[in-house]
């Protein structure tokens, strides 16, 4: 769903000037991630099932391009996790969204404008006496308090004394002494922003033709950072201040000098040059990097309309990141382009020239369209992947040459519209002699299947890699 429901739905802004609901992908992503966190923590199976029914409605609304209905359904799913329904004031508050005029700002500019608008139509009127309070992390008191009598309501957030960095913006709606809603989102602050972005753009123009990983990545980041200063379309909460510093460091070094490598752990957005074109990738590099120690890599392929951020930010609020981190594995999430794509084997080989990736321990996971893409990658080069997990989607295996004995995990939700395709794929793999496991998740729909399946997927990976570990003893 949507860059955060099929892409991670996380950040594009609509500073609405009308009272009609104009939900943006950023808001959807924030709502989805919060819901996924609560869904994972909910111990009441009955509430989970009720929430998943509402989430299925969100998926259906996404494919109708009705984003307001998506927001309403995600909210309804979130409400189902509570013991009691919300009161009228909270119901109104839950329908709102806060949109900033920019996600990357220079605090010397003094302020950034914001608008409190409707993500979807509220069930009732705006409560009398409602106040909007906005603050940054570390603030003892709100930086601004705005009375809300109708939507949209606009204001400005003072930034003149704010510390630079990737900050957390906190906003709440209050009635008297009672807070009826609390939300958080990102805001990046960087000093001397305009001249730094101009210098970055000039350096990119000078170096982009070099074709190195650093030069291609810096060019991508320069465009992304520039978009964050206007009406952003980025779909995730980006660490804009850090990325600006990273891009400057990449281009400050001599041409060809490496910036990325095992000694720089954490999450990075990179543009990887390939024989034809390049691939946009989000990568998680494990800590304790040693160029002499080869590590497994998980290549995560997102669903239709998605992006490299999907597995990091959604699909269980980025649960796969912790699963890889706890094992010391690399996580690579490539973006599937609308026109053209990438060769998974070539991409991993290109990454392995920079990071110590074990090419004998390449693991795939794909959801929906990504499951079909992962299947196609394995059919083209079955010997290059140690284990493959395919969730909520199908794909053809042709004559299945080279698949005999290859480990596959195929899963779908009981209410998943991709169930039939996934089951058909599992049967085709079994017919080809693959060691294919099938798992169906009760009451689960198309989107949440990844969240519910990931623990089983990683247990499957552990089993698949164990023979190699035993052989090395």
Summarize the structure.
This protein has 473 residues and is an alpha/beta fold. The protein is built from 14 helices and 16 strands. The chain folds into four domains: 2-85, no CATH class; 99-189, Immunoglobulin-like (Sandwich), CATH 2.60.40; 190-259; 262-471, Alpha/Beta hydrolase fold, catalytic domain (Rossmann fold, 3-Layer(aba) Sandwich), CATH 3.40.50.
CATH superfamily of the largest domain, called what? Answer: Alpha/Beta hydrolase fold, catalytic domain
Q: Tally the structural domains.
A: 4
Helix content: 25-40%
Shape: globular
Number of strands: 16
Main sheet makeup = 8 strands, mixed
Secondary-structure class: alpha/beta
What is the second-level CATH architecture of the largest domain? 3-Layer(aba) Sandwich
Kindly report the spatial arrangement of strands forming the biggest sheet.
Answer: 9-10-12-11-13-14-15-16
User: What is the CATH topology assignment of the largest domain?
Assistant: Rossmann fold
| Mean pLDDT reading | 91
Structure description:
With 473 residues, the chain is α/β, with parallel strands linked by helices. The chain has four domains: 2-85, no CATH class; 99-189, Immunoglobulin-like (Sandwich); 190-259; 262-471, Alpha/Beta hydrolase fold, catalytic domain (Rossmann fold, 3-Layer(aba) Sandwich), CATH 3.40.50.1820. It is built from 14 helices and 16 strands. The protein has helices at 2-5, 25-41, 45-63, 67-80, 88-94, 193-207, 213-228, 240-252, 310-313, 315-325, 344-352, 369-380, 419-431, 449-471, and strands at residues 96-100, 104-105, 111-118, 130-136, 144-148, 153-158, 165-175, 178-189, 266-273, 278-285, 295-301, 330-334, 357-367, 387-391, 407-413, 435-441. Strands 9-10-12-11-13-14-15-16 form an eight-stranded mixed beta sheet, sandwiched between helices. Strands 2-8-7-4-5 form a five-stranded mixed beta sheet. Strands 1-3-6 form a three-stranded antiparallel beta sheet.
